[in-house]
Here is the input.
Amino acid sequence: MPAEASAHLRLLGENLAIARKRRRETLGTWASRIGVSEPTLSRMERGDPTVSMAVYATALWMMGRSRALADAADPQLDLGALESDVRAAQARSIRRQRKAVPTAAAPARSATPRRSAR
Here is the structure.
C-alpha cells in the first residue's frame, strides 16, 4: 500500500475514533452498532487496511457522513482524469487549427487560354 494512502487511512481511523468519543460512545457500544467485534473496531480506528471497507462505510454512515464515500471517487473531483481530458481537448484544438490554415495557393492561371504552337 502506498505510504500516502496508508497515512490517509490512519487519519480516517483517527477521525472516526474522535467522532465516536465526541458522541460519548464506548468501544463496545459502537462496535455493536456497526456489527463488528471490539478488536475490529480498534483496528479500524488505527487505520488498519485489512479492515473491510464496509466497516469504514458503516462508521461514516453512523456519523451522518456516508456521502463522503460517493465524493471520494466523484468524477468531477478526479483531477488526474480532468488533466488528461484537458490535454486531449487541447490536442484536438491544435489539430482543428492546423486543418483550418489554408495551404499554399496554386499558381493562378491566366484568363485567356493559351494557343498551342503548331
Notes: The first helix runs from residue 3 to 22. The domain at 3-72 is CATH 1.10.260.40 (434 Repressor (Amino-terminal Domain)). The CA atoms of residues 11 and 80 lie 23 Å apart.
